[in-house]
Predict the structure.
Amino acid sequence: MEKKEKREYYIVDKRILPNSIQSVIKVNDLVQKERISKYEAIKKVGISRSTYYKYKDFIKPFFEGGKDKVFSVHLSLVDEPGILARVLDIVAEENMNILTIVQNIAIDGIGRATISVQTTENLLRRIEGMLEKISQLYGVKELRVIGSN
């Protein structure tokens, strides 16, 4: 990658990634979880070393590392009583702390809210499931993770 080339980051569903990228993710997971060498993991997954080393530095899980993690979720919600409360219930069920809630006045029947949520390292893997539950709620029109640290 050239020095002047600006990096851009996207959050994508792993299912749409090409097999080679998914294989690199599998190798990284094996190295982390099974504590085996990269060479052993590459052989186990069945990809070439060149493919692994071509992509390895460009793939990182969205939720990784750190003791505490804070992320913000932007929501577009139907303007009906109780919808935001159901979203907050799901966050609470997952034992995550809500740090801030910013809610705007609804326009054309759609309200917008941004919620900052704090979680701990041992709950990070549950975030994706929580976001999926929220996105499937009646009245949630859009859900976007807009930041994390």
